[in-house]
Amino acid sequence: MSVVVITGGSAGAGKATALRFADAGYDIAVIARGDAGLEATRIDCERRGVRVQVISADVADAAAVMQAAHQIEEQLGEIAVWVNNAMCAVLSPFTTMSHDEFQRVTEVTYYGFVNGTRAALAVMRPRNRGVIIQVGSALAYRSIPLQSAYCGAKAAIRGFTDAVRTELMHEQSGIQLIMVQLPGMNTPQFAWARNKMGFAMQPVPPVYQPEVAAKAIYSVTLRPVRELWVGKSTLQSIVGQFLFPRFLDRLMVKKAWAGQLTSEPHFDNQPDNLFTPLQCHHHTHGRYGDGARNQALNIPSDLPGKALSCAAVVTGVVVLARWLQRKR
């Protein structure tokens, strides 16, 4: 059986992804911090008849991630797919976020991907095969208020991934490096993120179930693409940012600030997972399932350019045909 590694795979989209690969017959390795969440994911995957290895490690620790990669290869065998997914966030204006908070989000959400990619390449390059998937977000292109650290990290992941991909292409490597940009998901992260706003956090609609993310992530192992945009809202955000960035700035001020907050009070002493994991039962779904979508339009990132090129060619042919008619 093939082996997949998923960082941050003990809850939310990461856990849904582990279950999706288990359903496809992959042996599963999960790297996360919380023992309770790891154990719950192990049990759920083993019920599907596959081998499972769970490792408690902080993805911000490069040595621990590298060690985990070698442990997985020793126990389960050759890693075919590595999914970088672990993240954390702080909901706060930049000016009220501490240096330590901003640094921690960056260490986990950005450097965690760097460390995971380095570990994956260390075991994949000698055999010149494998797939590395970076779980991104529409926020990698279009930032929103109150999420400066998280948006900065996601944008950094995109830049880092583009650079490493071209290096692999230069080497004529057989390793695929893919980024999957997700929309707002109904996951527990909104209950676990550090929140300094006084009101409970929610995903900006439209919201999708985590199985949508899992299906998209799994799909790129079957049909590799450079980058996959999941959901119409992701497509709109990315294309809109290129075409109408100032308009989207104003729209984010109007919609995204209040859109991330509910009317439910949130108190500063409520636990979060920024520096320490929450030792509780980790779920795949969050509290925002009402109206959450189970299907999404998936668009490869090169499709809009191809469509535009085709439209330009068709327009050119039509113009040329009319010009030739007039010449007659």
TrEMBL record:
Family per similarity comment: Belongs to the short-chain dehydrogenases/reductases (SDR) family.
Domain of life: Bacteria
Gene Ontology terms: cellular component: membrane
Gene3D superfamilies linked: NAD(P)-binding Rossmann-like Domain
InterPro entries: KR_dom (IPR057326), NAD(P)-bd_dom_sf (IPR036291), Sc_DH/Rdtase_CS (IPR020904), SDR_fam (IPR002347)
Native species: Trabulsiella guamensis ATCC 49490
EC number(s) recorded for this UniProt protein: 1.-.-.-
Ketoreductase domain residues: 2-181
Keywords, comma-separated and alphabetical: Oxidoreductase
EC top class named in words: oxidoreductase
A Pfam family per the record: adh_short
Record protein name field: Short-chain alcohol dehydrogenase family protein
Example GO molecular function: oxidoreductase activity
